[in-house]
Amino acid sequence: MLQNMYNKVMQYADHPRAELVLFIVAFIESSFFPIPPDVLLIPMVIVNFDRAFRYALIATVGSVLGGIAGYALGFYFYDTIGTGIIEFYGAGDKFETFRSWYADYDVYIVAMAGITPIPYKIVTIASGLLNAHFTNFVLASVVSRAIRFFLVAWLLWRGGPSLKGWIEHNLYPITMAAGVVFILVVVLFKVLLGG
Question: Measured between alpha carbons, how far is 146 from 144 in angstroms, rounded to an integer?
Answer without folding.
Answer: 5
